[in-house]
Structures are given as structure tokens and as C-alpha cells.
């Protein structure tokens, strides 16, 4: 029997993972408009920006402005703004702006970590330790990159994933997210890896960040659901996720996943009509070519018989 | 536990369902070239054409020529050419060309059957009875259209599907295919309907014809696999399936499904590289805009660790 949860937590990553992949600078006011539309649609957790060096990703040069505006506006509500931080400096800057939960990326694959972050896994873990030591009331989510495959070393052994999670937990990580960084996961693999991680770390909140590069975004989501995952990171319109070919999909689109979950009777807290209005804003003002499906199809209402 | 079969039968429908949705007439030689490339890639069952009236679908005016050529060339091999037939006249024409297995469409929804075929369900079933009576050694697959939802009546009750299958079996149908005609199925629904059909008709070969309109093509495939289905109808490049909006996906792309199945260790008998070469032919000579994912992504080889 396939069993599904009653409710799923949707973590929106579009304003970080999506926007950072867009070359033209998006006006800060437009970013904030999309963020506010997503919150109004019911999103309760969102990566709103990334505290990387502006020379590395100029699109994120307004990280402090974005974070401050969102934190000020939604303080005291149940909305949780997240930011990605690559190091202690970024974490301190995020904290100063009011951010109390951050995503920190380390690759299961040593070669990918070196290529992507220019650090060994050990160096990444040492930096993580300095973040949790210096900012003890900052919650840290560990994004395990290349958890399902690496562009350099191919298959990523389950033990590399488990050992990275264990090391992260020892350094104070509160949440773990398995990321299909290059979009090569398959449902069997997702199901098996999730079960292995849950067996090893049963009390650790576990999320999935899945790509739709090869059309398996929702199939992998389904496999994750069947394995017990109730937290998924997705992106408005399918923006971002480093697609490596023109027209290829990257991140799974939030609206595609929400539509599927609602059709299955799984609650997300999101109002799909309002969410689709936010997708339209993104299409009209930021990125005309979206890879999500719901922006092209129409919403289907299950009329009564 | 999610369990998956060792092998899946891929039924290619691109040269029928895909080509019939293309407005410009595709030269018969080009159609035959794609069909031959698909067979060379390992496809062992394929809808090669449709014996509809050429006034209804001019693209299928060369049905007899296509069927005769393919039947002559592959007689005595393990390749099975299929054709869609809308009525007894079409079935006789197909039979005359050498076709020994046909697809016959009836909608679970009365309103859709009237709109699509201009017959009541009862009239469709009477025509079906005349086909099986007049051509007793022609195998008939019953394509149950709108099995998961109807554009006119919305939700389609499970009993409408079960009663249509029962009526089809009484009239000599050999195989049943549940079709997500308008791309609104969700994985939970697929799983539940397949289990209900298998429980009611445990000995009847059952296939699924799934669309990717809302990004759920492979998720629904996965749900079907988990429910025990081992026969899936898909289309080269994702051609066809009546997408009702520009850019929207219709049929699930064969190459996307094959890539997923192979990654999961499920055999299909198809050589993905050769199949992708056929997709390129379709893209270069028939339809430049394909909705399948694998034509835009690259194939990912799981290198050794």
C-alpha cells in the first residue's frame, strides 16, 4: 500500500535558488513583491536571499536589504524567512538582519565540494562548526548537495551521505535536506536513501530538494512521500536549480507539486490560485520562459459527478 | 515497501497519437523512417497509424500505406504493429493491411464519448461487438478514455470505468488500457483505480496511458508500477495527447519513462541511445518543440564510484 501524509511543509526556494540563476539584476522592489505574493499565497518558510559575496553572485547584492525588509515585516508571525549562507561572515550578516534560520551547503561528494565551494568536506564542516559556535541561537539546515549523484564522481555512495549528516549533527545542525543537485535522482534511489537516512537518524527533521531535469521531479517527490518525508524544497515556476542546457528544467516547480499534493488530498497550507498569480508575476516581470507545468496547463477542478 | 517489476512493456504511440496532432502533413517516408528507428531502438509494440476517415484526420490518410509497409517488413518477427480503429470499417481496412491487433477507444464518461466519437457508450460497445464478431482473430485493446477525469463531467466514478471494462470484456476485448485523456490523474488516484481494476479483473492484461500535462506523467507511472502495472503507452518526444494550451505537455515522453525505468533497474528492452537518436529525427524533421525532458537534458551515466 502507498501511504501518504496528511500535510506537507513546502519550503519555497525561488527567491534564492531561482533568482540567483538569473543574469539580469532584478530590482529589489520586484523581488520583495514576489516574496510578498508567495507569503500571501500561504508559503510559511522561504529562502528569501543568499548572503554570498556580491562579486560571486551580483544578483544577491541586495541580500541585507531583502532580509531586513522581510524580517521586519513578518516579525512575530508564523512565517519563517531563511537565507543561504556560505560561511561565518554570511551567517553573521544574515543574523544581523534578523534571520534566525539558515541553509548551509556541503556536498556529499568531495570533488563537487571542491569545485562548488572551493573547500574540502572537512573545511566546510570546520566552517559550519564556527557558525554554530559563534551564533548559538541560529538554526542551521544542512543542504547535502550531490546526495544522489555528482557530475564529477558519478554515483555517490550512501555512506558519504550518512557520514556528512552525522558530522553535521555533531556540529549542531537542526535539519537535514537531501539535494538532487544535478537532477539525476530516480524514485527507487530516493526511496532507499530516505529510508537509510531515517533509519540512521530517526529524530532529525529531513527534507528533500528535487529537480525536474529529467522529468522525475514529482515522481521523486512521490517516492519521498512514500518513504515518509513531509518537507520539500521547491521553486516558483521551476526557477533555478542550475539547468545545464537551454530549456532544460532545474528545480521542481512549487505550483506543480502543490497541485499534485492537493489532488492527492495532502494539505500544504497554500492557496493554489494565489500562488499561480505569483507565478504569473514571475513570468511577466522576471523570466518569461518557465519550466513548471501549471503555468502552461490550466488548473483542473474536480467537478462533482 | 515500494516494489517494482523487473521488466516493463513499452507501447509506443507516437506515430499514431503524436503524428495525428501535427497539422502539416508528414511525408509517408519520414513517418516510416521514424517508425523504423523506433523499432531499431528496441520498441516491440507500436501504434503505427490510425484507420480513421481522412476527412476527420488528414494526417492519417496514408494509414494503409504505413500499415502495409510495416507489416510486410516485420512479418514473422517479435515486433507487433498496432493501429487505432474507430469502427468496423477501419478495423477491416487495418486487417486487410496485415494488422492483427487494434486499439479501440471508448470513454468512461458518456458526455466525452458523445463529444469525441459522436456515439453513446452503448453505441460504441455495439460497434465493438461487430468488430470482434466479424474479425475473430483480430485482438482488440480497449482504450478507456477519461478514466481519470472528464473535461465535461469532471470526476469520473470508478464504477463507470469498471462497467465499461466489463462490457468490453463481454464483447471480446483482450487488453484494457486506462487513459488519462486530459492529463488530470494524480498518483493516489492511479494507484487506487489500478488496484480496483486488478481486483475486479485479475486476469486481464492492463496498461496505462498517462499524460504529463501537469508534470505528473512519471509520478503517475511510478504509482502504476507500484500498483502492479507493467505495460505503459508513451510517445516519442512527448508528441501528441491533445495538449490544450501552447507549450503544454501531452503524452508522457517514452524516452523520459525509459530513462527513469532503467535508472531504477527496470528493463524495457529499449536502447536509450538509439531511442534518443529517433527523438532527434522527430525534432529535426517533424516537430522542433518537444515537451519531453531527455531531449533537453543530457543522459546521465552513473559512473563507478
Structure summary:
Chains A, B: This is Hydroxymethylglutaryl-CoA lyase. The first copy, chain A, is of the alpha/beta class and 305 residues long. Chain A has eleven helices and eight strands.
* Gyration radius of chain A, rounded: 18 Å
Would you tell me the structural class of the helices and strands of chain A? alpha/beta
pLDDT < 50 stretches of chain A? none
CATH fourth-tier homologous superfamily of chain A: Aldolase class I
> What topology, given as strand order, has the largest sheet of chain A?
1-2-3-4-5-6-7-8
- Main CATH class of chain A: Alpha Beta
Strand tally of chain A is: 8
In terms of DSSP E residues, the strand content of chain A is 5-15%
> Rough shape of chain A?
globular
Helix content of chain A: 40-55%
Give the second-level CATH assignment, the architecture of chain A. Alpha-Beta Barrel
- Helix and strand succession of chain A? EHHEHEHEHHEHEHEHEHH
Q: Give a short account of the largest sheet of chain A.
A: 8 strands, parallel, barrel
Mean pLDDT of chain A: 94
| CATH topology type of chain A | TIM Barrel
Topology:
2 copies of one chain form a homodimer.
Chain A: E1 9-12, H1 14-18, H2 28-40, E2 45-50, H3 63-74, E3 80-84, H4 88-96, E4 101-107, H5 110-117, H6 121-134, E5 139-145, H7 158-170, E6 175-179, H8 187-200, E7 206-209, H9 217-226, E8 231-234, H10 254-263, H11 272-285
Parallel strand pairs in A: 1-2, 1-8, 2-3, 3-4, 4-5, 5-6, 6-7, 7-8
